[in-house]
Amino acid sequence: MGATGPKQVLREPGEATRRVRFGNVEVGGDFVVIAGPCALENQEQVDQAAHAVKSGGGHALRGGAFKPRTSPYTFQGMGEPGLKLLTEAGRRLRMPVVSEIMDAAQLPTLVEYVDVLQVGARNMQNFSLLRALSKIDRPVLLKRGFGATIDEWILAAEYLLDGGNDQVVLCERGIRSFDNTLRNTLDLAGMAYVKQKVKLPILVDPSHSTGLSWLVTPMALAAAAAGADGLLVEVHPTPETALCDGPQALTPQAFDAMMKGVGAVLAATGRRFADVKPLAAVGGVR
Ligand code: PEP
Ligand code: MN
After folding, report:
1. CATH number corresponding to 26-282
2. Residue nearest atom 4 of ligand 1, based on CA coordinates
3. What's the pTM?
4. CA-CA distances (angstroms) from residue 183 to 106, 168, 173, 177, 197?
5. Distance CA 205, CA 173 (A)
6. How far is the centre of ligand 1, averaged over its atoms, from the C-alpha of 120 (Å)?
7. In the chain, where the domains are located
8. H helices within the chain, ranges in order?
9. DSSP for 46-71?
């Protein structure tokens, strides 16, 4: 790519994966699972989802308050009241929390509530948003755009490092291909390629990449086998009533089963789930 190519995100020979810490969790070493509902809906749903994630062995809690929906007539997210529920559930269960930022104007609100700011597929090349996030001291979870090449994705991460934020975690969430049978096409080989070439930790999202809950566990196991640093996965206490992405959400029981399977794959490949560090050692969760 020459002079305009990435300068900071590439892995030097022998260089270890960058560790990115949030709360009592560290990504880039042992395997980390971030799970929770697509959208935060109400107190009961958030609490039940958080409980399911914690009891299944998840490390961090996800949930969208500002949802980038294809149609303006579908649920757009709870906004700030949802973030409050997410943060409270995370604090209670000692899990850091992750939520999506759609616009730089939401930054002051989001930093008040969340440990990690997620940039969604639709905003991967929102360069003014990336510039704004490069100026803050908070980890960013950068999802791959569904129409983005690997080079474009890597250069989007480069914007964050160039501006001064090196706390970046990548996430492969599937791309659009000629085949629309599934919601997206999971580019696992692309994930393994990026893992090799880029020093940032990388997660796989088996939920948005398939769109179907029964494909989530097999793709989660494949991601673990292929060397991902962790997963971002949707869990809902009652997927059939979900306001967003119900067909791809795991029930609490299915999440437990997925975690058992992932644990077996990790053991078979000489890896393990990350420990949750004692809060005293990391200065507490915000
Ligand atoms: C999400 O994680 O809820 C989401 C909207 O994902 P993506 O940006 O990958 O579509
Ligand atoms: Mn979703």
Report:
1. 3.20.20.70
2. 120
3. 0.97
4. 28, 26, 10, 10, 27
5. 5
6. 5
7. 26-282
8. 43-56, 80-93, 107-113, 127-134, 150-163, 188-197, 213-225, 252-268, 279-282
9. HHHHHHHHHHHT-SEEE-BSS---SS
User: Of ligand 1's atoms, which has the minimum distance to the CA of residue 122?
Assistant: 8
Ligand nearest to the CA of 35: 1
Residue 168 pLDDT exceeds 80: yes
For residue 68, the ligand 1 atom closest to its alpha carbon is 5
Please name the residues in contact with 242: beta carbons below 8 A apart, sequence gap of 6 or more.
37, 38, 39, 41, 236, 249
How far is ligand 1, taken at its centre, from the CA of residue 226, in Å?
Answer: 22
Q: Which residue has the CA at smallest separation from atom 10 of ligand 1? A: 121
75-105 confidence digits (pLDDT tens): 999 999 999 999 999 999 999 999 999 999 9
Ligand 1, atom 6: closest residue by C-alpha: 120
Q: What is the pLDDT of residues 257-284, one digit of tens each?
A: 999 999 999 999 999 999 987 766 655 5
Ligand 1 atom nearest the C-alpha of 64 is 3
Cα-only R_g, the chain: 17
